[in-house]
Amino acid sequence: MKTIQLHKGKKYSICSCGLSRALPFCDNAHREFNAKNGTDYKSVKIRPNETVEVELNSVNWKR
Ligand code: FES
User: pTM for this structure?
Assistant: First the structure.
């Protein structure tokens, strides 16, 4: 579980694959993994309407 603050109007890209070295944010590691494994991982895009603190989690996050 990662707790982060998201700022109003800023675009965030959240990792769904668990391979990012910058969790909880996507660092595009999913692209190479998808190419090698035929998977279709994509980041989750968020642009909040107000500044909020959120708790994020994914079953793929091992770190
Ligand atoms: S690195 Fe995990 S979704 Fe992009």
Answer: 0.88
